[in-house]
Amino acid sequence: MLGILTDILEKEGFEIIPVETGREALTSYDLHRPDFVCLDVMMDDMTGFDVCREIRRSDVYVPIVFISSKSDVVDKVLGLELGADDYIVKPFDFHEVIARIRAVARRCLAQKDQKRIDDSFMLKDLKVHPRILRAERDGITIELSLRDVRILKLLHDRKNEIVHRDVLLDYCWGAHIMPESRTVDWHISQLRKKVERDPKAPDLIRTVHGVGYKFEAP
Question: What pTM does this model have?
Fold first, then answer.
């Protein structure tokens, strides 16, 4: 389950620090200070409740999400009373997990950037809101992942320039993940389904065959 969740969230664009025990979780938290934490309840050395309690002693703001097979009401209540922001019961639908983690990420980004001016940007008629992981067109809201936002932002900042696949890989995936180049093409095809009026005739994300992609600004 740890491996599956790591893979899913990396595809969403999160940088994941996976650990297997409660002690490792606390050590990793102190070292990396992540933007949010996912915890199982049952671990070998200490419970997720204990880890949550320890984190909350020094940080009352970092979002914490429990993902556990313990489904009793008393467990959910305890997790929330200890300061968790959400409690997801296994087995679960991965789309639901992604949606609920996105909601946590939106709150996290909004809290971190609340003093900044609006950083929204336009791709023709599409308005992208990075801090809330959404875009909108004609009054319709479009849900985006972190990686979606990074891709759109890079294309926007380099408008009318060809963005090579290698640049997209380094900027939007990170050099340490090393996905294959066709990963970019697959992700762009999925992103087009979200943001293009006609994904088969894309107007925002144009393909430059054999090289990369391009956003042609008006």
Answer: 0.67
